Amino acid sequence: MILKMSLRSLFIISLADFKLLYHKVFPTVEKRWIKEHPTCKLLPTGQDLVDALLTELGLFHSTDFNISRDSCLKKLEAPLFWIPYSSEPLSYWPVVIIESQNRLLCSVPFLKEFKSGSCKTLIESSNDLTIVLNLISELIPIVNLPVIQMNLQLANVIQQSLPYGRSNGSLPELKTTTKAATSQKGIWKRSKPKLEVQIKEEIRVIMSRVSTTTAELYGTVNLVTDQEGDLKDTKLKLAFSKLSKPVSALFHSSATVTSSHPNNFVVSMEQGSDHTNSVLLCHYNVPLDNIPLEVVFKTKTYGLNTSISIQLKIDPTLRSIITRLEVRVPMPAGIQISGISTAPNTIIGAVSIQKDNTQLLWNLSSLLPNNKLKEEVTMNVGIETIRPVSLTNVQSVISFAATGSTLSGARISLAQQSDLKLISSHELKSASYRVWNYECNDII
């Protein structure tokens, strides 16, 4: 398959230190884009590029309320994001993002930019976005390499297959390991080759008292076969059993998809892969009516003392499988916590001060293995700060992870008799779960 969609830029960001590890601009595509869009601004470069993207994702300036980013009226979207320019915040540029092992693999496709108030078409062509997703997904093994090796491999791939920001065919073989070939091939021949289905979901939620809660679920389905497995001519059934709304899904270009129901798909793999045993079968997303955690977050400030109350109501079906649960309350920029003044002994979990005294952490993870976590828990704590602070727009940020289940009920099965042995794994995590101060009266 020849790639029609052009790429303006490809870059990689480290989430460990928020630095740019790799950045490639395709001059031919960029010149064409400038010619067709003479009034639009140029992409930021260097650390400006990193800061703009991480701010929009909520990793920078997370305690500042930004209407365009944090409003409950904003539609949550992934893996395509629209990033505002720092010098012109009403103009946006598009970027497709995939996270892998604490790194962000980002690609700026050739899409028309837009300004606030104009008619915004998220995806000019769903086929174009599918092509970009498939392309950068194939680069994930390289992204996980050490930086020097990663840069050499990416330079090689671009020179051979993406010289002008457009693919000239399939990617070359990615040499991501120097490990000797395994000697277990004879054992695999005597047993069924394995097909592992990896389903990972993320939930993104924005909550406040004065706005409707916005929640959306994002998921990926990966197919991984061992050395003797071949996906060609394999037929699969993908079903979402827990969703009341139709799911929006983008499938790999090698899959032919039919559907008799909005949330049931029959997938036929039309071709195999010459250089990898892993295929990112699809991305999917759907708005959620019910969320796993309902939260009320309140603060009251008296001089240097602040009272913080956080109430969690946890879905019983999630409580038994959740493996990590943390609630963080970042202070506004320049504010440090000097101490915890009151913390009743009845508090469930552990409360501590983190990140150079700029964040309050309520950790409930230790209660999960023994299933001692109640369906409804509350933290009431008082803190002291180095100077008076207004917490009107402060938010609590919740992170959790669960295994063995998904919110969508996504499940893959073989649609016909096959030589493949099917093995499934599931993972659910919160990527962005923000709860704004209950007392706040200016959030829209």
In short:
With 444 residues, this protein is mainly beta. It contains 8 helices and 23 strands.
Termini, distance in Å? 46 Å
CATH domain class of the largest domain: Alpha Beta
Segments where pLDDT lies below 50 for 5+ residues? 117-125, 177-190
What is the correct CATH architecture of the largest domain? 2-Layer Sandwich
Q: For the largest beta sheet, what order do the strands appear in spatially? A: 10-13-8-7-23-21-16-19-18
Q: What is CATH's topology name of the largest domain? A: Beta-Lactamase
Tell me the strand percentage band.
35-45%
| Structural class label | mainly beta
Gyration radius over CA: 24 Å
The strand count comes to 23
Shape: globular
The DSSP helix count reads 8
Mean pLDDT, all residues: 81
Query: What's the domain count?
Result: 3
Helix content: 10-25%
User: Major sheet: size, sense and barrel closure?
Assistant: 9 strands, mixed
